[in-house]
Specification:
It is built from three helices and no strands. By secondary structure, it is mainly α.
């Protein structure tokens, strides 16, 4: 059985970015993505789309079987 793939790592990184952004919005009312890319720009929408796709992909991680004990990760 394989370890976590590059696309899994990328998806998780996007989910973390989204979670941090939502945390900033909830706690401070500050949207980091809008601050960096503008409120309604093509780039900010692209970031939101990528974070959403990363979240959808990361759902698959919940339903994958656990690796066998002693299996190589990575």
């Amino acid at each position: 059985m394989r370890g976590i793939s590059i696309i899994d790592r990328l998806a998780l990184a996007l989910v973390v970015i989204g979670a941090l952004n939502w945390g900033l919005i909830g706690i401070f009312g500050f949207n980091l993505v809008s601050w960096i890319f503008g409120s309604v720009t093509v780039l900010s929408r692209l970031v939101y789309i990528l974070v959403g796709l990363g979240g959808i992909w990361s759902l698959s991680l919940l339903f994958r079987p656990d690796p066998e004990p002693g299996a190589q990760m990575g």
